[in-house]
Target: N-acetyltransferase
Amino acid sequence: MTHLYITAPQPDDVHELLAFEQENRVFFEASINARPAAYYCAEGVAEAIAQARQDAEADRGYQFLIRENSQLVGRINLHRVQRAYFNCAELGYRVGARFNGRGIAKAAVEQVRQRAFGELQLSRIEANARPENLGSVRVLEASGFSRYGHSRRSFLLHGQWFDRLHYECHGPLQH
Model:
């Protein structure tokens, strides 16, 4: 891995993002719920990018593309931003199949943590991982997240219930 960085999706990313999602669709849908079929066209991705920009402007969520030497290799986001009383968000990420196992997710999580606890002034980030997703568990634990819970049969995928591990990470105390 040489130069890894995160950027908010822009309207001119539509075709590259669509190609990335189509290339990795089967891989992603093996472990997370499928996106609606309408997403997998230029108009669907353009709408998703527009929605991501609206969410960021309204402080509801922040999506980023993960790039390595300008090549799109994954996505990472902070969603479900809650400001009043909680000042937290939930982390999600996905790295393309051919880029797994190279430290990309860990590096992207660190960049999102810095942004979340810096310019976004969040106090806490939450994340979930299935126990059998050892790669994701390792990323979270190596990135300073602590496990605080285990919910049983809480995630339905392909007609089967799965457990989830719950993680949290705290930024510096702010008054």
